[in-house]
Automatic annotation (TrEMBL):
<feature type="signal peptide">
    <location>
        <begin position="1"/>
        <end position="25"/>
    </location>
</feature>
<dbReference type="InterPro" id="IPR053103">
    <property type="entry name" value="IDLSRF-like_peptide"/>
</dbReference>
<protein>
    <submittedName>
        <fullName>Low density lipoprotein-receptor class A domain-containing protein</fullName>
    </submittedName>
</protein>
<keyword id="KW-0732">Signal</keyword>
<keyword id="KW-1015">Disulfide bond</keyword>
<dbReference type="InterPro" id="IPR023415">
    <property type="entry name" value="LDLR_class-A_CS"/>
</dbReference>
<keyword id="KW-0449">Lipoprotein</keyword>
<dbReference type="InterPro" id="IPR036055">
    <property type="entry name" value="LDL_receptor-like_sf"/>
</dbReference>
<dbReference type="InterPro" id="IPR002172">
    <property type="entry name" value="LDrepeatLR_classA_rpt"/>
</dbReference>
């Protein structure tokens, strides 16, 4: 009776783990690894099966190495792990969002991606918004699901962009500006007066101070200008319509060629 080598037990254990965790990812040096197709896995399983049936035949080491080690999610070297969307072009992280496009399609300087690089992690922001949603939604951040608002906060370059994306009212914009200025100045009492729950300050400061530092309020004065212009347009539209209606009513009463008499 043939004894089964220890290596076969180890290999079988690895294959069983892969089979039970087909989507398992292993991260090494910030490079993603994933398992190959089910077809290749089936080949390896067949090799192991043949080995148990006929111990004299040795499984090909290359296939076993692939099964155990997986393959890179991209072909970039560790020194340049960031792949452009154009094939076979890789960049170091230092070149991402440095103001100079290096990918042929300039993807490494994508505005939303570079803005998100300066902001807190989206999943952390989403968790915070969800935790304090009764305070933040809709009075401060506007209407929407926590994941949607977190994405807008991470990707919007300025508060003007966010206000448009989240369809904020003037009052919501004012509260958001007050919140960010309170975070910047460390005015916890003011924020508590705005309804900030007890225990929220530390996490609020970590997340929203980073949003402030990224230049989120750089063009906040534009909001007032836009609001003033919008109100002026609405007033002009109102009075133009009112004057036209008055003229129409007078013409109907006195005729098109009658001159109004003032007493």
């Amino acid at each position: 009776m043939h004894s089964i080598p220890f290596g076969a037990y180890l290999t079988l254990f690895v294959l069983l783990f892969v089979h039970l965790n087909p989507k398992q990812l292993v991260h090494v040096n910030a490079v993603s690894y994933e398992w190959k197709s089910d077809y290749e896995l089936d080949k390896v399983v067949q090799v192991i099966t043949d080995y148990f049936v006929s111990p004299s035949s040795n499984p090909p080491p290359l296939i076993l190495w692939k099964a155990v080690n997986g393959h890179r999610g991209n072909d970039c070297p560790e020194s340049k792990p960031w792949p452009c969307r154009t094939p076979n072009i890789c960049l170091s992280f230092a070149l991402i969002c440095d103001g100079e496009p290096d990918c042929p399609d300039e993807y490494d300087e994508d505005q939303e991606m570079c803005t998100a690089k300066l902001r807190p992690a989206e999943e952390h922001l989403q968790g915070f918004i969800n935790k304090y949603r009764k305070w933040l939604i809709p009075d401060i951040l506007g209407e929407g699901k926590p994941e949607e608002l977190a994405t807008k906060l991470v990707e919007s370059k300025t508060i003007v962009d966010y206000a448009k994306a989240a369809h904020l009212s003037k009052e919501q914009i004012r509260r958001l500006v007050d919140l960010l200025m309170g975070v910047k100045s460390g005015k916890q009492i003011m924020l508590h007066m705005m309804g900030m729950p007890l225990g929220a300050w530390s996490e609020l400061y970590v997340l929203f101070y980073r949003i402030y530092l990224s230049g989120f309020l750089n063009n906040v004065e534009q909001l007032q200008t836009d609001n003033d212009e919008q109100e002026a347009q609405q007033q002009n539209s109102y009075w133009t319509k009112r004057n036209f209606n008055s003229y129409r009513d007078v013409r109907h009463m006195y005729g098109p060629y009658q001159r109004l008499m003032h007493y």
